[in-house]
Design brief:
elongated; 26-stranded parallel β-sheet; mainly beta; 6% helix; 7-stranded mixed β-sheet; 469 residues; single chain; 40 strands
Length: 469
Amino acid sequence: MSDTKSLWGLTCRLFFFTFIGLFFLQSCTEEKEQLATPSLLSFSHDTVRFDSVFSAEVSPTKLVRIYNRSGRPVRLPRLSLVGGAESAFSLLIDGAATSEKENLRIDAHDSLTLVVRLRPEVQGTSSSLVSDEVEVFMTNTLSHRLRLEAWGLPHIDFAEDEITKDTDWAGAPARIITKPIVVRKGVTLRILQGASIYFRPKASLTVHGRLIVEGTTNQRVLFAGTRLDSAYKYTPGQWQGLLLTPGSGPHSIRNATFRSAVTAIRTDSIFESCYLESVIITSCSRDAIALRRTSLYMHGCVLAQNSEAAVSLRGADVTMHFCTLSGDTRFGQARRSSLILLDTPPEGSENALRVFNSIVWGNYSDEVRTTGKGTLDIVSASHSLFKWTKNRPVSSARWEEILYIDPLLENPAKLNVELKTDSPARGSGYLMKQEGMGLYDLKGRKRIHPDGTIDRGALVYEERSVTKR
């Protein structure tokens, strides 16, 4: 009897395990792999485009995903860069850099992630298109190609400590300043149209001699940090900025853009003339311009999206014509100061500020303020527009035709400070007879409209064409 029960138990166990085995065998059969076909796969991109990348430097990465839309796993026989080992691009698959990978599996309703990066080798002086393709093989006769594109930017590394003789920097290729450099006393540095000057994080330019920047409307000079990718190129504080030291000058900067510095321009005891025309300064982590014992003339400039003051005065004499100072910021960038800051002047000096045909507007209730022993009674203005609610001057000979209403700029959060159609700055400016350089804005457009009116601010209003639907 005991033997019969044992036999019966063994039979039951065999039946049970046979059933379970058949179940899992059927499940494995359902998960049988298949070769990929175009109908089973989809791709996150057909073309992967990189921002401009300096020659011989590794770019930020881009991700491409290949999706398996099937309920069964698929097998890719091979995936490779068409350019092979000579390609400027490289792939990162399963943590390893490669130009080719074989026998790749994508589980059901899953995806394969390709990490793509670039190290372009660009010859000559001008940017050039760098391209390749990733070929995804499915069968012996079927494949899919993903295009990769980037602009490679040739450059020169400037690693000297000093500029000891008169020097011109003209146009391309771009120059990368790798550390702080100094222009010696008595030496002139001229930076000509189309030049691009990029700075590593600790780098700066200190001028004991003379600085002349001569960009044009169509070929501006650029001063910026070395991050070129769109997600970071406007990140504040990427380089230290420009310092004009005591006794240096005269200095002039025309048609130039400063981007992402700590403080773009700092001066101390400049007794020669200092002139800015059609200059854009944006994304500074501190002040855009910080002046100590300096006389500065500004014409047609845009100072926008800086964390602290657009212009900070300590014993400075500043005249602004046709400028736009905007306090809007991007990407959650915090502000810590009004646009114009009048600080305690050093002993033996005083502040003076004259503002004509300009716009000073942001999200502070008062975009002109004082600290320490700075005072407001040195401010004079006419035909300008201010964000100013408290302690503002009353109408007088030094305070005429002032508006305290929103200038209605197009999109200052995206650095677009063009005037909207209904902007109160339109047609309410005044062209002074002594203003010999006030005939064009920083985009080269005539300031005097056909009807004889003048706009306030750095940019004149231009009719936009409306697309009919």
